[in-house]
């Protein structure tokens, strides 16, 4: 009995020591990060760092957080950030973000309001800590800009994963699955007012609701190096994108995109993405309101879309192909300009 009691006391002492050693290392690591960032010319401030959760969790709280890059004109301010990890699996981290925070951009400040906004990071238990999954979810999110626009979203989940059972995910090294499931996306009211104000001959007035019903889909991202603890040195970049299917439902307007892109010899994205738009006659007003096409050209664009749709068995369905080739982009017959780079100019 005494031996058993001694063994229990020893185990409790060892576990307590493990927790306190980890707690001190975590606090010193956070303090060191803020010190290093300030030494590099960044603004890195907080009003307090605490670690709680004994004995089974490390609960890190950073209060009064203010991060900024004065040269780039960007920054982030939050009243607090909390990070949680179980002591028996520290490779799985959950971060809880405050209901209000601010993101400073060079020309505006965006205030983010949220309900239940949190992020989950899970690495695989290996020395290199390869990424298993990052999940960002919220019950409600709003963004209000000092520039005058407001957007929002309902229940939404976004993730990047190395181990989801999605076709093609395991066919190439350094391939990750980017998934999105967002509901009740609310465009800026001013934008919706512009959509409803657009009048195009031979097209009905816009009947699009004030919120997008849903955006769902998954994309395979091929990277030049794995996402692990060496990513800061390896600096992975995109080498290919495969769109398994992106689905948008906005009232009677629906769109589905599929295709693939790869980096060409110059590092530009090259490939083909097919977009099928059902009830395409709602689309021209959206493009005008978004500033993609000039209002004077809207009737011509609408007639062009109608001609393309007439080639389909269903006149309400418009199939367009986004072609990226030789550093340029064309969406059906409409030129869009230079293609994005996948590989940095230095290669």
Description:
The protein is an alpha+beta fold and 347 residues long. The protein has two domains: 1-106, no CATH class; 121-347, no CATH class. The protein has five helices and 20 strands. The longest helix is centred in the N-terminal third of the chain and has 38 residues, at 2-39. The model has no long low-confidence stretch (mean pLDDT 89).
Low-pLDDT stretches: none
Helix content: 10-25%
Q: Determine the number of helices (DSSP H or I, runs of at least 4 residues).
A: 5
Q: Residue-averaged pLDDT, rounded?
A: 89
What is the number of beta strands?
20
The coarse silhouette is elongated
Count of structural domains: 2
Spatial separation of the terminal alpha carbons = 67 Å
What fraction of the residues are assigned to beta strands by DSSP? over 45%
Helix/strand/pairing category: alpha+beta
Element string (H = helix, E = strand): HEEEEEEEEEEEEEHEHEEEHHEEE
> Any idea what the radius of gyration is?
25 Å
Largest sheet: 20 strands, antiparallel
Tags for this model:
347 residues, 2 domains, 20-stranded antiparallel sheet, elongated
Short description:
The chain is of the alpha+beta class and 347 residues long. It has helices at 2-39, 189-197, 231-234, 283-289, 298-309, and strands at 43-45, 48-52, 57-69, 74-86, 89-96, 100-105, 108-115, 118-123, 131-138, 140-145, 150-153, 156-161, 175-185, 212-223, 238-250, 253-263, 269-278, 317-325, 328-331, 334-338.
SSE layout and pairing:
Elements: H1 2-39, E1 43-45, E2 48-52, E3 57-69, E4 74-86, E5 89-96, E6 100-105, E7 108-115, E8 118-123, E9 131-138, E10 140-145, E11 150-153, E12 156-161, E13 175-185, H2 189-197, E14 212-223, H3 231-234, E15 238-250, E16 253-263, E17 269-278, H4 283-289, H5 298-309, E18 317-325, E19 328-331, E20 334-338
Antiparallel strand pairs: 1-3, 2-3, 3-4, 4-5, 4-6, 5-8, 6-7, 7-10, 8-9, 9-12, 10-11, 12-13, 13-14, 14-15, 15-16, 16-17, 17-18, 18-19, 19-20
Helix pairs in contact: 2-4
